Amino acid sequence: MYSVSAANTESTRHRHEMVERQIAHRGISSPRVLDAMRRVEREAFLPQELREFAYDDTPLPIEAGQTITQPYIVALMAEALLLKGEEKVLEIGTGSGYAAAVLSRIAKTVYTVERYGQLASQAAETLASQGFSNVHVLQGDGTLGWPEQAPFDAIIVAAGGPEVPRSLKDQLKIGGRLVIPVGADRRLQELLRITRLSETDYTTEELLDVRFVPLVGEQGWAPERPDHQPLPSGRADQAMVDDRGITRLITAACEPFTDIDSVDLAPLLGRIGEARVVLIGEASHGTSEFYRMRARITRELIERKGFSFVAIEGDWPDAARVDHYVRHAEVPPSEWSAFARFPTWMWRNAETLTFVDWLRAHNAALEPAQRVAFRGLDLYSLYSSIRSVLDYLKDIDPQTAQVAELRYGCLTPWEAEPATYGHAAITGSYRSCQAPVVAVLKDLLRKEQAYAEHDGERFLDAAQNALLVSNAEQYYRIMYYGSRTSWNLRDRHMFDTLMNLLHHHGPESRGIVWAHNSHVGDASATEMSRRGEYNIGQLCRQQFGHAAFAIGFGTHGGSVAAATDWDGPMLIRSVRPSLEQSYERLCHESGAPRFLLPLRQPASLALGKALMKPRLERAIGVIYRPETELQSHYFQAVLPRQFDEYIWFDQTHAVTPLATAELKGLPDTYPFGL
Which candidate among 192, 202, 445, 625 keeps its CA 20 to 30 Å from the CA of 295? Predict the structure, then answer.
C-alpha cells in the first residue's frame, strides 16, 4: 500500500530536483534562498487538482483569477532582496501564501498584504496549519503597504504596477531593498530592484522582463475588467463576425501554393525588388517547413539576384567552418564540430545540410571572389572566438599574440561556463574582464591596414571574433538578470556584424539574414518596444528603409523540435492549435493550407487596414512549454508593420536533427562533423 511517508518522500525528491534544475542551474546561488526553496512544500499552497504540477517550471492558477508564481521567479526575487536572516519583510500580493512561506524561512518576520479577502483568509489558514508562525497576513490595498508595521528592511511585490507606489518607497528603511515589477502595459513589466540611500534618494536596477498580474489599488491600476477576460457576449459575437470578414480577405489576397519545391516565387522576388538586405524568419527554431522554404527563397535570391552572403542566427566560428566548406577554402579541418553546443538541432539538421550542400555545389562553378559566403551573426561562442583570435595573431604577429593571450587570460577560469563568470563579475566576487578584452579588439583594429594586406578574409575573421569576445564578455555580465539590455546588446551585435559583412563584400553587396521572427521582424511593431527592446529587423529598417525586406512565417499546428528547459534534451512536441484573437487563427480560418501574403503592398486596402489591429502572435524558440502557451509563447504585434511578407503553413513538422556521433568520418557532412 502506498503510504503517506512514501508520498512525502516522493514530494521531497521532486522539490529537490526542482531546486537543482530550475533554480540553481539558472544561476540562483544564495544558500538561504536555495535552502528555503527545498524546505517549503509548494503543493500545500495549491488546489488539490493542481498539486501534481507543484514542481513544474510554471505559474499556476489559483482563486480570484490570480496565480501562484513560477518557483524560479520566487527564488530570483527573494535573492534580489539580499536577505541575511534578521530582516522584517513586507510582501504585497499574498496570493496562495507560498512566496511568504519561502521568505519566512529566510527573514525573521514577514508581513504580507492581499487585496482579495478570500485569498487572504485561505493563505492565513494554510500558513498557520503549515507552521509558518512568523508570517502575518492583512487583507487590504497592497499599494498602500502596511504603515503600522513600517519601516521594512525589504519589500517584495508580486504584481505589476504602472509605477512604483510612493507609499512603498516611503515605508522602506534607508539601505533597504524593494523588488517590484513595473510597466506601462498591464501584461508586461520590468522587474526592478530599488535601494533607498537616504530620505529622498533611491537607486534603481533593472533585473528581468516578467509578466505578473496587475497591481490593483489606489497607487496602482484601476480595478477595471482585466484584458484577458472574455468580452461581453454582444461584443464577442461582433468580434467573431469581424474576424470572419478578415479571413475572407486573406483568402482572396493570398498566393496559395502546393509544395515548397514547385512554388512560383517570381511574384515574391518582384516585391523584394532591389532590396539590399532580405531578412527571412521562422516562427520556431525547429520546424522543417520554415527551414526548407527559407532555403528555397535563398537559392532564388542567390541565383537570380546575385546575393553575396547568407548570415544566420548562429555563432561566427561555427558558421566559419561551414563557410570554408561551401567556398572550397584550402584550410585544414577544425578540431571541433560545428554547432555542437545546445541547441544542436537548430542548425545541425538535415534541412540545413541540404542547403549547405547546394551552396557548395553552386559555388564550385564560380571564381573564388564570386562565391557566396555563409556567416554567423551571434555572440555565444566566447572561447571558440578567443582561440581563433590567438591562432590568427600567432601566425601574423606573435608579439601581439602574447599580449592578447595575457589579456584573454582573465576569462580562462570560466571557459567551461561563461555564465558563471557573468554572475561572479556582477556580484563583485571576481573582477570584470571588460578592459583587457576591449584592449585586444582595439589593438587589432589599429593594425587593420597592415594585417589586412596579408589576407583580408582572415583579418575579417579575426576582427569579427575579437568583436564577438568583447560583446560576449559584456553579454555574460548582464544576462544573469535577463533584462532588455542583454537582448539589445545581442541584436546590436548581430546588426553590427551584418554591416561589417556588407562593408567587407563591397558597396554592391547584398545579404540574406536567417533568424527567428522575433529578430527579423520590426520590434517597434510589437510589444517588445514597450519593454525598451529593439532587434536587427528594426535596425535594418532604420538603416535601409525599403531596401530592407523582412519575411515572417507562421503555423497553426503540427510538431516541433524543442526542449522544455535550457540545456535539456531535444523532444518532438505537438504544437497546440493557435489561439483565438491571434494572427495565426485568422490564417487558419482562411482555409488555405499554404500561402504567401504580401504585406508591404497588400492586395486590398481593406485587408491592410484590418490587419493593422494589434493581435497575438506566436513565437516558439528552442524552448516550448505548451502548458503555459499564452504566457510563454504569445505576444502582441501589428503584422503589416512587422513584416513585408508573411508565409503560412497550416500544418508543420519538426526538423530532422543530425547526431554528432553519426557524422564522424563522413565527408559529405564535413562542416558538421570532425
Answer: 625
